[in-house]
TrEMBL record:
Keywords: ANK repeat, GTP-binding, Nucleotide-binding. Residues 350-449 form the PH domain. It comes from the Eukaryota. It comes from Acrasis kona. This is Ras-related protein Ral. GO terms for cellular component: membrane. Transmembrane segments: none annotated.
Length: 450
């Protein structure tokens, strides 16, 4: 909900406090008690949009002299009140308007209110209205009566409408200003990167992690795309974020891996600087997916030798190997199969199991479908959203010193209890049938013992 700070200003005794009192508390009093500056808060609808407004009731005793710069600065809209039955009170708002205009950087929304409408004849109203409109041709003028509750809400609605428009204009102006500043500076760092000019890059080194508004790329991503080893290195040694992503969620390592040229050294360099070798872009591709897609044997080799995970499924549920098989790229297929086999044989007792189980949530009855992946090597049981592989990861159960037991409650069939002693959590997990349950229990037990 948008929020506005509004001040009510004007000479003493014109009815500022009563207008606010009427609006916020639906009350009115005959007393004129001196006002202590305090904000009133109210939430209401303006053109069917809820707004929250903080209204500052100012002490008008010594009038505009007391206008504090701090609240002029803070307030986004001003209600300038005079009393229709005493036109000398208009002098105050003429002065106040000047002060506000001078101290505001942008135009300040104001509404002029002639209060105590109930005290004057219709004839006098017309004269007064003309008088005000001549002096303040740019502001809304409202005749109101706090006593008779006439036009009181209108006053606050109008000032919100005006403030809302101004706020949007200010936001837009600031955004444009920032955008211009950004693009002006960024142009240089991005252009410098494109031109491969180290001296120019150094000039704008503070913008090293800025994103080019046009292309959505950081300098590092540009240098990676250009396969410019030297500039990538320079950017990395000057604090470029190695895992920054472009609009497709691709890191520099993804981009490099997706090039057809030999980029092995750059891959090394990025990983050495902390690039996530298993990062996934928006379509779930890891660097090795990209390398496989462009049939870059050298890149695949390099990523494999750096220990990338070959089991990650992209959003189309494909591992890099599956992709290579589809592309009938038998060199890469052989390479990846080899790597996988080697990985398995290196870890003799490595066992993995994937499948769909049901896990009980926090609420007793709340059972959720989860895709489970058991890794003996890591001693973990990971589970994912839904019953398909490669959804959003929901959690990891540690199998370190974990224990399995029967489900004594027997709330559901084919369930077992898994006690994660590392994270001190107990899971109730349910398999599709008895056979499935026994398989899971066996493999989990083996993983725990391994
Ligand atoms: N007749 C009439 N009297 C009002 C109206 N609004 C305020 N007053 C009276 O004017 C006096 C001053 O009001 P107050 O709100 O305290 O003025 P402030 O100094 O501007 O805050 C009080 O006695 C109110 O009862 C109105 O609309 N009509
Ligand atoms: Mg007052």
């Amino acid at each position: 909900m948008s929020q506005f700070y509004i001040a009510c200003v004007g000479a003493s005794g014109v009815g500022k406090s009563q207008l606010i009192n009427r609006f916020c508390n639906d009350e009115y009093s005959l007393d004129h008690t001196p006002t202590i500056e305090e904000p009133f808060r109210k939430t209401f609808l303006v053109d069917e949009v809820p707004v929250q407004v903080d209204i500052l009731d100012t002490a008008g005793s010594s009038e505009y002299a007391q206008l504090r710069p701090s609240y002029i600065k803070k307030c986004e809209g001003f209600i300038l009140v005079f009393s229709i039955d005493d036109l000398t009170t208009v002098d105050s708002i003429i002065e106040i308007e000047k002060v506000i205009k001078l101290s505001k950087q942008f135009s300040a929304p104001m509404v002029i209110v002639g209060n105590k409408k109930d005290l004057v004849y219709e004839q006098d109203l017309q004269n007064c209205s003309k008088f005000i409109k001549d002096r303040f041709p740019h502001y809304k003028y409202i005749e109101a009566s706090a006593q008779d509750e006439e036009n009181v809400s209108l006053v606050f609605e109008e000032i919100i409408r005006e403030s809302r428009t101004t706020k949007l204009q200010i936001e837009e102006a600031l955004r444009l200003k920032k955008e211009m500043e950004n693009s002006e500076q960024a142009k240089n760092v991005f252009e410098a990167t494109r031109h491969g000019s180290v001296a120019q890059i150094d000039k704008f080194i503070s913008n090293i992690n800025k994103v080019d508004a046009e292309t959505g790329e950081t300098p590092l991503l540009i240098a990676a795309k250009n396969n410019n080893d030297f500039i990538v290195n320079h950017l990395l040694s000057n604090g470029a974020d190695v895992n920054a992503t472009n609009e497709k969620g691709m890191t520099a390592l993804h981009i490099i891996s997706n090039l057809k040229e030999d980029t092995g050294d750059l891959i090394d360099k990025l990983v050495h600087h902390g690039a996530d070798i298993n990062a996934t872009s928006h379509n779930g591709w890891t660097p090795v997916h990209y390398a496989a897609a462009v049939a870059n044997v050298l890149s695949v080799q390099r990523l494999v030798s750096l220990g990338c995970d070959l089991t990650i499924h992209n959003r189309m549920q494909k591992t890099p190997l599956m992709m290579a098989e589809e592309l009938k790229d038998y060199v890469i297929v052989a390479l990846l199969r080899d790597a996988k086999q080697q990985l398995n044989s290196e870890d003799g007792n490595s066992e993995s199991k994937e499948g769909y189980l049901v896990k009980r949530g926090h609420v007793r009855k709340n059972w959720k479908k989860r895709y489970f992946v058991l890794s003996s090597a890591n001693k973990t049981l990971e589970y994912y959203d839904g019953d398909q592989p490669n959804r959003k990861k929901k959690g990891t159960i540690s199998l370190e010193n974990a224990t399995l037991s029967d489900d004594k409650d027997n709330k559901k069939e084919n369930c077992f209890v898994l006690n994660d002693s590392v994270n001190k959590k107990v899971y109730l997990i349910c398999a599709a049938d008895k056979e499935d349950m026994n398989q899971w229990i066996n493999t989990i037990n083996n993983a725990i013992k391994s």
